[in-house]
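Protein MIX23
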Amino acid sequence: MAAPMDSIVLPCDDFLGFQMEEAYKQREVAIKKCISVASEDVNKLRTLKMNNPDDGDILKKLRKNQTKLRLIQQELNVEEVLKDRALKMTNADREPVLLRQLGTYSDWQFAQKLQSEEQQRVQVDANQLEQQKTKYGMNTRLTARQQFDRDLERAVSAGSMTVSEFLERKASQTKSSQSGVDDGYTRVTGQPKMPSILKLQQLIENAWKEGFDPHGSMQLEGRVVNTRKWIGATEIVAVLSSLHVKCQLLDFNAPSGKDNTHPVMINWVRAYFKDSNNFKPPLYLQHQGHSRTIIGVEELHNGSCNLLLFDPGTQKSRMELFHGKIDYNTMQTIRRGLHAFRALQYQIVAVVGLLNDTEFQSNTVVQQNGREVRDGGKVVTVPPKPML
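Structure:
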C-alpha cells in the first residue's frame, strides 16, 4: 500500500486539486492490480475445487483467498469515497482537511478498519447460520426419542392425553423402534405396515452410503438417525432411488397466480391423475416445515379443482370418520382448494417406475430422471448437479 498522504508536498492552492487527484489515481492503479492478481488466484482454486471436491486444504485456501479479494475490493471502495469527498471541496478547504483526515489515515488504521468490517460480516454470517441450524434441528442435543417423550409429557400436562394413554404410547414407541415398523397410532386400520421414523432415518443414511444425494448428505452432516433434523423431498428421492424406485422431483419455486397461489402446480397434479388408464401412485408434497400425501383430485362443475390429501397433522378422530358413511362434510377433512396453497415454494415427488440395474449402479438417478422447475407458468427442465 502507498505511503500516507501527508508525505505529498502541496506547493499551492491552485495546484492542490490536481495533486490530490494524481495521488488517488496512483493508489487506485496499485489496488486494481492487486485485485487482478487475487481474482486469478481465486479462479484457479475454484477450478481445483471442482476437480477435487473432497480436498479440505483446497477449500481452506479458496476461502482465504476469497476473503483477501473481498478486503482489497473494500479498500478500493473506500479510496473512491475519500477521493470524491476531497475533490468536491473548495481549494481553501482542501489543504487542512487533507492533512487532518487523509494525512493521518495511515495504512495500519486502514487495515484495522477493514479487519473490523470483516469481523462484523463474519459474525453476522455465523449468527444467521446458527439460526438456520436451530430452525432445522441441527444444533440441538435433544434426540428424536427425547423429543417424543417431551411431547407426550406436554400432552398429559395439557389434559389431551391420559396417563394410561401416555404409558401405552411409550411402550408402543419402544416396540416400534425395535421392529422398525410404525406403531400405526395416526393411521386408519386395514393399511399396510409403514416404517417407523427411526427406520426411515436409517434408510436415508443407507442411501447416502450408496452414493445417492451426496449434496444432501453434506448439508445434514451425514447423520440423521435419532436426531430432530428436518428431512424433505430430496431425502425421499434418495431413499426411493436406493430401493430401485425411479422418481421425478419437481420444484414449484415461485407462486404462479394471484394472492401467492400455485395454479401451475394444481394443474400439473390434475393432469397427473387425469390419466386413468394407468395406476397412479400418490404424490409426496413438501413445503417449508411440512409434508403431505396427495391421493387424488376432485374436479368441480365450474372447472376448478381440489386436491385430496392426507395430512399427518390431522386429528385421528377426524380420519376415523372415513370408517362410516363418506359424505361432503367427511371429505372436507382431506379436501384442499387453490387458495390453501400459498407457501412460497413447493416440491413434489412422483414415482414414475423402477430403476434398471444400469441406472442403479451409475448412482446418477436424479440426473437421468431430470428435475423440473415451474415458475410463473413456465416449465424449465433443470439438469441437476452431477453426482461426485
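The first helix runs from residue 13 to 51.
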